[in-house]
Amino acid sequence: MTTSINHLNTRTRRPAAVRPRPTGARPRLGVRPLAMGSAVGPLTRTPIIHIATPQLHLSTKPSAVVLRIARLQGPIFRDDAAAQSGLSISTVNRQVSALLKAGLLRERADLAPAGAIGRPRLPFELNSSEFLTLGLHIGLKVTSITTHDLFHRVVGAIQIPTPVADTPEQTLAAIGVSARRFASRWPNQRILWTGVAIGGRVNDGGLVDHPRLGWTQAPVGPVLAQALGIPVSVASHVEAMAAAELLVNPDDDTGSFMYFYAREMVGVAFTVEGSVYSPTAGPPVIGHFPAGPTTLLDPTTTGQLEPAVSDTGIVAAARAAGLTVETVDDVHAAAAADDPTATAILLERAEVLGRAVSLIADVFNPDHVILGGQAFTDSPSTLPAVARAVRATPAALHRDVRVTRAGATVQQQAAGAVSLDAIYSDPLEALALTA
């Protein structure tokens, strides 16, 4: 069998299939939705595989605007949707009709005013009962697999150790098998799309360079699309987290945000007026930034930010200080038990991270700074130290600094944002790709 890969760059143009077909290849049969009843078995047809470049923004397409209003404010009447969106009532009527036909919306006849006549007086809402998306966050040590409804809510979630294999293809194939088995738990719902959030640089066609995993041009998109048989979007994980924050705070679509992430890796992303900024050369790399002066952290004196403050770095610092620990959770547990060394290590981590956040924020001067990742969310007692370090410079005295609302589920929310990106950006076009 042959498989055609359609590289879909939705940032600049409408999706268009690439249609070369080798001589003798069987006719195209379209994208085959993930068949839950045989989720772990091989595909019996040759699908067209769509690999999308996510837009990671609040789309202004009329269908996307109406879908977003339904997600955030439904049930809602059409005239109210027109008033709140700025769209004409005729445009809203056309989009609602098309989205109802596609099954993405549903009407609530039970909420119609007494004596109301005609469909425009029926409120509509998002139809979250028929569709799901599949999210994958591939981490250095742990991979999260989630399903999401159209509200971006996590429906189900598991974690697996990121498989260790000889090649990226083998690792990705193993993740694909686990994801397909997990998705089979929902046999009566249609899985529309897969979203992958991963560290490193994401190139066209879902190819990934990930130095920490030792991957160069790893075919993340192609392998997972082939394994799952549905369209796949792949994004840098910190940019995906920033996009998830936009979904949580859609009213903050003006001004600028800086999203700073820290756990096993550190990274930063920026949003401007409702769009995540995605540089052509890839997301900013800050792991090599100077850590600054340290006492307990960075026992091997790398002088670099990521080795000093990562979970692995925290465990190394604790062991060098004489603590018997295996994981960063052990360090947190020791600090909770009032161990002074563990407490000092976590406090120093907060101070080093705060200095790094302040340094980058002073350069770009965003309106808001959002802190994400377990380095922040798993250590709330050290957040005042982060805030003091961030506000240590005169330029930052009144800067808005907040912790992500996603909390400890930030990786799941990021993968969900990528999995829903095509649907939220152009719902009718995205649904057509899975027909």
Walkthrough of the structure:
With 435 residues, the chain is an alpha/beta fold. It has 2 domains: 1-249 and 409-435, ATPase, nucleotide binding domain (Nucleotidyltransferase, domain 5, 2-Layer Sandwich), CATH 3.30.420; 253-404, ATPase, nucleotide binding domain (Nucleotidyltransferase, domain 5, 2-Layer Sandwich), CATH 3.30.420. Helix content is 36%, strand content 21%. The chain contains 14 helices and 17 strands. The protein has helices spanning 62-73, 78-85, 89-102, 168-183, 220-228, 237-248, 305-309, 311-320, 328-336, 340-364, 374-377, 383-390, 410-425, 427-433; strands at residues 4-9, 48-53, 105-107, 124-126, 131-138, 142-148, 154-161, 190-198, 201-203, 207-210, 215-219, 232-236, 256-262, 266-272, 275-277, 368-372, 400-403. The strands form 4 sheets. It has a 7-stranded mixed sheet, with helices on both faces. The protein has a 5-stranded mixed sheet with strand order 15-14-13-16-17. A 3-stranded antiparallel sheet has the order 9-10-11. A hairpin with a 4-residue loop joins β10 (207-210) and β11 (215-219). α2 (78-85) crosses α3 (89-102) and α10 (340-364) runs parallel beside α12 (383-390). The chain starts with a strand and ends with a helix. Mean pLDDT is 86; it is low at 1-33 and 35-45.
What is the count of β-strands? 17
Derived structural class:
alpha/beta
Counting H and I runs of at least 4 residues, what is the number of helices? 14
Strand portion: 15-25%
In the residues, how many domains can be counted? 2
Largest sheet: 7 strands, mixed
CATH superfamily of the largest domain: ATPase, nucleotide binding domain
